[in-house]
Amino acid sequence: MKTEKYKSYKYFHFEDVFVEIIIANNYSFKEAKRIAKAETKAILKNDFIYLIFDNRYSIIKNDDRKLYEFEVCTKKLPPPININEMTCDQKKELILYDEYMCGPDDYQIVSWSITEAYENLKSLYPHMTHFDLSSLRYRIEKENSL
């Protein structure tokens, strides 16, 4: 009996730039989920993404295009609000305020390489030498059988 294999994806972001990365493949569902749920650090450098997870590291290079995909949020959000100055009722209203929420239509896939993503962020933050990406979510997908 053939054992099904799975891959783990993690979704990261820095500001309005998002990237989905395959962090593991060819694992059992249980192991793929364990890896995906592990705390993962991702650092965007000028031509690679450095991943640290599950007591090991991995480097995703520009040429590894099948392992990553960038997208950007196209929705212009209102300016940040100081919630410390808001009443409890105002905070409850804010949670439901559509202007601060993004949906699937607010994101656009871009064909950026890692270098292009780095250069775009570097143009906005010239003092930074790398970008620590925050993890948002994960997903598990069954590998395609050949």
Question: What's the short story on this structure?
Answer:
Helices cover 19% and strands 40% of the residues. The protein is an alpha+beta fold and 146 residues long.
Describe this structure in words.
With 146 residues, this protein is of the alpha+beta class. It has one domain (6-74, 105-142). It is built from three helices and eight strands. It has helices spanning 29-37, 88-95, 114-124, and strands at 6-14, 17-27, 40-44, 48-53, 56-61, 68-73, 107-110, 131-142. An eight-stranded antiparallel sheet has the order 5-4-3-8-1-2-6-7. The radius of gyration is 18 Å and the shape is globular. The protein starts with 5 loop residues before the first strand and ends with a strand. The mean pLDDT is 91. Keywords: Plasmid.
Number of strands: 8
The computed structural class is: alpha+beta
Order of helices and strands: EEHEEEEHEHE
Number of domains: 1
The rounded Rg comes to 18 Å
Termini, distance in Å? 15 Å
Mean pLDDT: 91
Strand content: 35-45%
Uncertain runs:
none
Strand count, sense and barrel status of the largest sheet are: 8 strands, antiparallel
The helical percent reads 10-25%
Strand order of the largest sheet: 5-4-3-8-1-2-6-7
Q: Describe the oligomeric state of these chains in a short phrase.
A: single chain
Inertia-based shape: globular
Q: Please, how many helices?
A: 3
Notable characteristics:
146 residues; alpha+beta; eight-stranded antiparallel β-sheet; 19% helix; plasmid
